[in-house]
Target: Alanine dehydrogenase
Amino acid sequence: MIIGVPKEIKNNENRVALTPAGVAELAKYNHTIYVQAEAGAGSGFPDEAYVAAGARILPDIESVYEKAEMIVKVKEPIESEYKLIRQHQLVFTYFHFASSQSLTQAMLESKAVCLAYETVEKADRSLPLLVPMSEVAGRMAVQEGAKYLEKPQQGRGILLGGVPGVKPANVLVLGGGIVGTQAAKMAAGLGANVTLMDISLPRLRYLADIMPANVTTMMSNEYNIRDQIRYADLIVGAVLIPGAKAPHLVTRDMLKDMKPGTVLVDVAVDQGGCIETCQPTTHENPTYVIDHVVHYCVANMPGAVPYTSTLALTNATLPYTLQLANKGWVRACQENEELKKGLNVVHGQVVYQGVAEAFDLPFYPVKDIMATQVTA
Model:
């Protein structure tokens, strides 16, 4: 198969979808790999390393899309890329369709095959390609939140861990999944008082067992959230519904109950956000203030630590990339239910229920679509 790795062009996105080690693995199976010039530079991988591993370097993004049968990316295509994606081309990346109707419509019109990292799902309901970036984002949420609590950043001017004789900050984490667990661990490690909310009692029991003493678990509901936001200095939104738009747990009217300088970090912003007033921001301009509350809503948080993020992501994606390249997407998805669940849009039809519901679009069961395909 001919595989293309374009340079990410989203604002301050420095990750890359394949490392030289990944290229070398694909080359062992005689696949042709085209990498755009400087695609890996932001993550610390020069073009020379890709060439040594067996890749061919192309000068621009248009050339990569033109030659490739499968595009492997990190972030969803942005508007300038829409026209480059061809009918029947396989695009393997994070899409987060439910948060963008324009992206969904563009991919439907392209008639490409869109396989989303974030909905590849194991039998135990875990999301193996979301986990590594969720781990990074969860830890970064507290790191960034601590920074924006500083007064020069318009925060409350409070040190997350406090000092002897002075109380530490109160951190509220909404969601006890991978992001929330990592955020709570990070905040607790820095010495904050942490309240971790989730809707699953079994999950809360587990978290109560593994978390340090300065983490309190609490059932997530509107009453408890309204109560806790009055005391929180940092609130981390860490809610995910796979492939669907995140619910608004913190609404616009709740801001008035927060202390001035409270910081909100919505890790779910690339899936629509679980804080109603959060809109996607960039690493260049990461925050804005509404009602004296600081909002940090960067949609590609792991892009700020690209070396760590690229290695963590490609460790997880490479086995799936190899299956798709070796077997073609049809056979790979027929033989691997995890990959099949990653299919979101196929040849102009929505095959993932959450995306169809987000925009009231017709839904086509993936098994029906695949039955009409010729096995590669």
